[in-house]
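Researcher: I'd like a structural prediction for the single chain below. Treat it as a standalone chain; there are no partners to consider.
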Amino acid sequence: MESLAAEQLSGTVTFLLTDVARSTAMWDADPESARGAIGRHDQIIGEAVSGCGGRLLKARGEGDSHFAVFDQAQSGVAAAVLIARSLAAEVWVTPQPLRIRMALHTGTADLRGGDYYGPEVNRCARLRSVGHPGQVLLSNATAALVRSALPPGCGLVELGWHHLRDVAAPEQVFQLTHIDLVAEFPPPATGERHHKVPPMLTSFIGRGQETAQVERLMSSTRLLTLLGTGGVGKSRLAFQVAEDLLPEFSDGVFVVELGPLADSALVPQQVLSALGVPEEPGRIHIDTVLANLGGKHLLLVLDGCEHLLWACADLAEAILRSCPKVHILATSREPFRILGEATWRVPSLSVPDGTAIRGSDLERFDAVRLFVNRATQSKPDFAVTGANAASIVEVCRRLGGIPLALELAATRVKVLSCEQIAARLNDQFRLLTGGARNALPRHQTLRAAVDWSYDLLLPTERALFRRLAVFAGDFSLEAAEAICCLDECGADDVLDVLSSLVDKSLVAVEEHGDRLRYRMLESLRQYAAERLTEAGETNELSDRLLVWFLAEAARAEPELKGPDQGSFLNQLEEEHDNLRAALAWALERGGCTDGLRLAVTLSRFWLVRGYLSEGRRWLEFNLAASPGASPSDRAKALIAASTLAWHQGDYTGVGPLAEGALKISRELGDKVGVAEALCRLGELRTMTGDHIAAWSLFEQSRAAWGESGAKRGVIQSLNVPVHDLGTLACEQGDYDAAEKLFEEALDIAQEHGNTMGIVHHLSGLGHVARGRSEHESARSFYEESLAAALRLGYKRMVTFNLQYLAGLAWTEGDLARAATLYRDALAYFGPAGDDLGIARCIEGLTKIAAQEGDPTRAARLSATADRLRETMHSPLPPSELSDYQAALDAVRAVLGPEEFDAIRAEGRRAELSEGIRAALREG
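Model: Treating it as a single chain, here is the predicted structure.
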């Protein structure tokens, strides 16, 4: 074969060397068939190398071997896979199928006279020499480059560190696997054994920071125990760390797998077996272990210690005392609790949060990468798409980033779509079965893994573990003590038993400011819930949950209008999942008015934190499910629902709710209820342009507040001018009156520490300044309001202030800043489902697109905004209509009526999520 000197690559390249196994015997047996087979072999290799962008050199006098170079390591691996699969699929005329061994190594090219020389080529050749027929070996340099970008169906198996002939430094050797190829081979033919770490048949995904942190800890301690719940990946992380640290230990690294053992007396014997040391007659095993380890410098990995804890602790303590150069890395669900032990809790893999994430961003999260990698191994054509990205995120989040659960879920892609997998996760333990047959029994299914932990618990631990399933989210110690204290686990026992469950990695503890909170992974919670049902305790625990959180919400409710409202809003946010569970239980029980009271109490929290649709659903569900509720409770619920409907922009829904509340409140003589209902009805009149009627209703509302004698009512009544009286005055051009109203309200809100009111009144003053064309003053008011809203977590006013600032930038002609602010607002609150806020953002971006000369984009965006407003029955306010309509008229004139209508029709048919993505895109 001719050397392609003119086309040779320089610098860092990847070498691929191949050679045919037992080729001499094949030529001797039948030269004719051998000639044909080798010719076909040459053709396959040549096509594969060329097709993957490589350069094929002459055989360099090595019989039937080949030598190729690639500028990218991924290209070399792709070529090797293609060669191996093609050779395996070929029908050979020789007595035995033709098999080759291959090796890949990446290094700096030493190019002379059109050929490659030097130590990097030698290392690749020596690596090839230790392989077996049909095997593809990679050096550490190449494996590091391709680990996160392997071809579909491929994996890497770490084979340990080996000394290659005539190469000074040891090489960490990897085997390239593919689902269509043989994976099992003898150890590399180096004639030496440096360590005993189980070969990994799948690639190690992510965990870069975790691996580095564990390795740092290992440098400062002789005993480190990795803690974590079943399936979180303790063993896999320990094995990876052991491989990485192999060069640090002159006498090697050895893994002792303790999972299969049931008898603690066998622990020392298992260590001897791992070390390859025979028993000594008449000598107890622990003494033989200590004598053998003596002065050796090695790392001992004790994997799966939790069920043999005392025996493992005794062994580790003896080794630390007697073998000063031996280090121990252990994996367990709870610590040994001996002197010299350091512990590190293995976290779940990183998962995306609840916000919308583009498919291209998902690779940042280790949980997603693991799921996709394993899914690809199960179904080679699997890929992340726009259609399944959201479901993949949901699967990873619901499974809590637990590697075992993700791997089991990924195997289901052969028979279920990602959407179907996500939908079935309510029954995780039925879905997540079918693990590898060669895994330990407790790792073959998620249920077996958790059964293993549960069976090791004491009766009091089992009792608290199953009762904690009543919490849908994280929880406080106080809540656990109040709700979970029954029979064998009383209130006084909860702290100690909960601490024990934390030690056993069944409950996680997290810092929330100056407080600690606890949580169970969702998979563990589902398991515990099944056990709770078996024990017949579900109803009683759920009743206790409802009573506890109704009291907690009632305690927080008056504080939501005072100076500590931010702190109490945060507390309710922490308990949100548990509050949802309490509300759901109230509905399930039926006829329970506690659910209605709880929903009313939470209405301000839902409003401020942007849970408008959710809050309204809970209120309306509980209204329907509580026909026996008192008139007072019903009136409060109707007011709360009408308030959320108003902020949703559902103006057709506001009227019946507010009128129903007004009727009941008047019958009861409840002035506060009357005042609140009149506010909502006045706001409706504002939307229809009937300003005289609106003003009258607002004045009646203020009078009712005054008659009620409720100081908090006066404060709230002066919030009305922000949304209504102030808005009316601004629209009529009476900025002096509007300013007076806003300043009066602001003074009272500041006096009483009502941050929510402060946010609104500052925005109102911004409107006044903007109406007077005092842009710097307006910007200052909006930014001050935005900062207060961010501190409070008042999502709706965050996005509205961003929109106000965007509108101001648009007025000033700064279209780039306006577009950025609108997109910021849309990204901040769009996922929460505030349709009115979304519509306002998209309308602003529509005007910008029109002004920047992009009529197609403007027409499409306008269709999304119009569709949203029609769905909400919320027309654009008159004060904003003229500019928006002028923009659409200009777009229609450029495109022509027919094209304009066609683009808008297409935009109206698209999903809302697609419309939001289009709005978020630049340009």
